[in-house]
Amino acid sequence: MTLTRRALAFGLPVIAGLAAAPVLAQSGLSAEDQAVLARAQAYLQGLTSAQGDFVETGPGGQTRRGRFWLQRPGKMRFEYSDPAGLLVVSDGSNVNRYDPRLNVFRQVPLSATPLSTFLARTVRLDQGVRIDRVTRMQSGAFAITARDARRPNEGSVILAFAGSPLRLQEWTITDAQGARTRTQLTSLTPASGLAASLFQLRDPTRRPGRN
Q: Taking the model in full, what pTM does it have?
């Protein structure tokens, strides 16, 4: 069974208050918007290893909580406390998801998920990404709405940044069917010396000797 993009929609729903912002074609971005993109790109490029807590709100309003770890390039772990035991782990090549309640393990190539752009060795918001909207707030906070330029009809992501120093606050992923999943990062701190085992997840449903 394949793992759908919706199952991997680590949320940033549309942020309240941003709906009225004008939609800008990428070719028509102002110099100020281009500067915002450069700030976001530099921040994401510098976010090489981190950990924190998250709250995820799904399309039906269901809420999930847990902790996450990331190590670029390519590695991330979402460990859910509610529901307990649910794991989503990227090992650099594949994203694996295990639901112990259903005893179901699923796998999809990292390159086929929304995570690939932001876990890349080099984060580029000016290549392979279509910027639909840049929203700047008077407080200095901003949000970027983007989609895969190669597959523009497969959904979009909103990345929201705020604070001084700058910090990624949340993201909302909208899939091809219009369903939105929001992930709020309630804490995000740099981390070092993360164990390699955090980013490994073997199929728990596979019995010994089974091919």
A: 0.77
